[in-house]
TrEMBL record, chain A:
InterPro entries membership: ABC_BtuC-like, ABC_transptr_permease_BtuC
Lipid bilayer topology: Multi-pass membrane protein
UniProt-listed SUPFAM superfamilies: ABC transporter involved in vitamin B12 uptake, BtuC
Keyword Membrane: yes
Any one GO MF annotation of this record: transmembrane transporter activity
Organism: Bifidobacterium psychraerophilum
Protein name: Coelichelin uptake porter, ABC transporter, permease CchC
Homology family: Belongs to the binding-protein-dependent transport system permease family. FecCD subfamily.
Automatic annotation (TrEMBL), chain B:
Source organism per UniProt: Bifidobacterium psychraerophilum
Domain of life: Bacteria
Keyword Endoplasmic reticulum: no
Entry-linked PANTHER family: IRON(3+)-HYDROXAMATE IMPORT ATP-BINDING PROTEIN FHUC
Protein name: Coelichelin uptake porter, ABC transporter, ATP binding protein CchE
GO process terms (BP): iron ion transport
Residue stretches making up the ABC transporter domain: 32-268
Top EC class for this record: hydrolase
Molecular functions (GO terms): ATP binding; ATP hydrolysis activity
Compartments (UniProt record): Cell membrane
Lineage per the UniProt record: Bacteria, Bacillati, Actinomycetota, Actinomycetes, Bifidobacteriales
Enzyme Commission number: 3.6.3.34
Amino acid sequence: MHAHTSRSGTKNPRTRLGVICFVVSLVLLVVLALCSIAIGSRPVPLSEVIAVLGDPGASGVAAEAVRLRIPRMVLGVLAGMALASAGTLMQGMTRNPLADPSILGLNGGAAFAIVLSMATVGLSAPIQYVWVGMLGSCIAALGVWALGSLGAKGPSPLKMTLAGAVVAAMLSSLTSAVLLPRIDVISSFRFWQVGGLSGARFSLIVPLLPLFVIGEVMAVWCLPGLNALAMGDDLARGLGSRVRLVRMGAWGASVILSATTTALAGPIGFVGLVVPHAARLIVGSNYKRIFTLSLVFGPILLLASDLIGRVLTRPTDVEVGIVTALIGAPCFIVLARRRNLQQI
Amino acid sequence: MMKTQDSKGPDSTPAATGRPGPTSSITRDPHLETTGLSVGYGEHLVINNIDLDIPVGTIGAIIGPNGCGKSTFLRALARLLKPVNGTVLLNGADIASMPTKRVATQVGLLPQSSIAPEGITVSDLVSRGRYPYHRFGSAWNAEDQTAVDHALRATGMEGFADRPVDELSGGQRQRAWIALTLAQQTGIVLLDEPTTFLDVSYQLEVLDLLSDLNATEGTTIVMVLHDVNLAARYADWMLALCDGHQEALGTPDEILTEELVHRVFGVEATIVDDPASGMPMMIADRRHSLRARRALHETTVGGNSGARTAPKTERDAHHEHK
């Protein structure tokens, strides 16, 4: 008989492809990060960017431009990682390839909370939006979890998806109801609603940094359980996985990650949906690998979208939320067709 | 060894059927039993007060009509459901109080509704059976590899190791799932309807594979089967459930009677000797089915000499005159 040597495919071409993709996209990410500092309404040559980065004390117009763009780039990377991770977790825990953070009701929750606070208390400072949005997201997510766990058998993927859709629809009508009679609120809300990186400030990002870290650590903890869960709840339990705990962990991590992102950058669609799909296409069904690759793909998509938005309509910006949707939607259709989705 | 509610003899030791005892390569021989086990959802009891002491190294089959609680019972055995009353004991300890991963190194479960992740290869699928042996962050080791290789070889799937599960035939796919359960290296394997949706040749292939495992490794196998005749052919002991109650427990020879089939499944049947295995075999008797009429015809002509009881002559007469 032939000697069977390869460990579950460590030597198979797909793994090699995954490693190559990871390295190449890491390089691409660094290039994009530098470009997103260099390119803007006032371009700065790459050599100067590197010079300023190496010498924090540098002064001049170029140095100022660079310093303003760094938080934007950092937020792009953080948000890209967070959204892609949250999407991976959502797809894993619901076994639904179409799941993404929006089915948590997070965006809806954040939007409603912000609109409500604008209309009633008259909030206007970005840092206030951050915390109010965070709170709204978490309440909506808890509502979806509670609704999806009703019944003797506890949370199931289908119930979760339905609960998310119901809560999102309800919040969206409530938001409109509050918004429509108030012209002044509409104009300040619409900037938040599109989702963008232009409001990035270190003073807003740094306080929320621990949440990104906690979310990602929780996500990593969930990955083995998600691999078991992928084969069905019963099989996962039979393998000794604590299914409910894994679901709660994945849920909690996606809530933290996407609520934090939404609070800082507004609702950015399609990253959580498309990125895990693309990663899965390359590395197969192992969530550890999908997650790793998504951590690089997410920021790439976000930074690239942000750059495109800046370059296309110079000197004004098209917000990144619009560009990710413009890029993401066709990508998603192509991916879905190629993967020949069996379970919609 | 086994407790029976029926007055059927408790003498259902595996030795009686000529099977080798547990001469195992697996170091531990876990022992599973239930005492007064009741399981239910809310107020409704699906499984009612079942005592079962599963003999180590045997093959057991759980039979009964749809909705009788077969799967629920199996899931409770694997710690998937919490008993309302009674306990499941693994080596004498309450399974509900044991860490999930420790249970999973001794009791393996192959549920009916398993999903192969899209595009996964056979070896990747099988390697997931090693889940209970891994703590967070622990690396794949030589022991894992040996277990996976062994499972692939035992199920005859080593030639398919790098093939996507989606591309396999039904029988091969089921063998891949069984390989996953084997890679889990448990002394007890529970299977929920492992032959459902398979063509008859694959059904036999899967059951032969399980018999081989039992014979070579001494693995204790308990499976839910809806085909009573296959159960009788392959099992050392059978547990018949009806409405969550234990209707009969014993060797197929002891319990598979016309009376039991009527009581459990609500059908009239003739029990004959299976010419292939010598085990009892049930022939369901449906008044209006072609097969039943043909069988009746043969009986009256004198073909069916293996019948264990005399044909029901009144019914015959009734049919003849129709």
